[in-house]
Amino acid sequence: MMYPGPVLRLMEELTKLPGVGPKTAQRLAFHLLKQETESIQQFAQALLAAKDRIRHCSICQNLTEDDPCRLCVSSERDQDIICVVEEPKDVVALERSSEYRGLYHVLHGAWSPMDGVGLETLRVKELLGRIKAGGVKEVIVATNADVEGEATAMYLARLLKPLGVAVTRLAHGLPMGSELDYAADDTIARALQGRHEI
Predict the structure, then answer these.
(1) Of 11, 16, 83, 145, which has the highest C-beta tally within 10 A?
(2) CB-based contacts of 161, cutoff 8 Å, min separation 6
(3) What was the pLDDT predicted at 10?
(4) Residue 35 sits in a domain of what CATH number?
(5) What single string gives the DSSP state of each residue in 115-160?
């Protein structure tokens, strides 16, 4: 059965979201169509407001409404340690553990030539600028424990060690192939405690 044009277009747009295939897009489209117009307008306004008001922090590259972000300007954070993560959601995962009190740097991806993500597309230049400005003693590389994350970690270690900072990696507790966002809080805490030099 063919759907009306607007429904097809809605399903097509939904399939552009990560993890949403044709069946899920169909289910989401029909769910949305059942909603009251006011609910749909609120949903659309929330999307537009987030897109309009959220930007990258000029220091750590995390998502923020205020620039610089609240973590970068906090006097309670340890200023001589930076934890490098792949995505903004990883900052949230590490913060949930309540173990880490330093600063962050978000790469916005991992080195993955097969997916068209080159090293030049990551926020490495900004990280180098922060370290060269001085005051940083340790960089914790907290990229995911998968092939892309490990390759990114090794690249960063080779790049950062000559700058005179300790470069460490999260240790045990995070199984190979896992993502920080799905790890339990105590697992992240143990990984932070057991980090090791790369």
Answers:
(1) 83
(2) 167
(3) 96
(4) 1.10.8.420
(5) GTB-GGGSTHHHHHHHHHTS---EEEE---SSHHHHHHHHHHHHHH
Contact 84, 176 (CB under 8 A): no
Domain identity same for 97 and 146: yes
Token pair 């399939």 is found at: 15
Which amino acid is it at 64? Answer: T
Beta-bridge mates of residue 138: 81, 166
CA 35 from chain centre, in angstroms, equals 31
Place of tokens 């995070």: 174
Local structure of 194: helix, strand or coil = coil
pLDDT at 113: 73
Angle at which helices 124-132 and 147-160 pack, to 10 degrees? Answer: 30
Segments forming the whole domain that contains residue 19:
5-53
H or E element: which one contains 43? helix 37-53
Does residue 46 sit in the same domain as residue 130?
no
* Sites in the chain below the pLDDT cut of 50: none
- 128-154 pLDDT, tens digit each: 999 999 999 999 999 988 889 989 999
Q: In degrees rounded to 5, what are phi and psi of residue 81? A: -135, 135
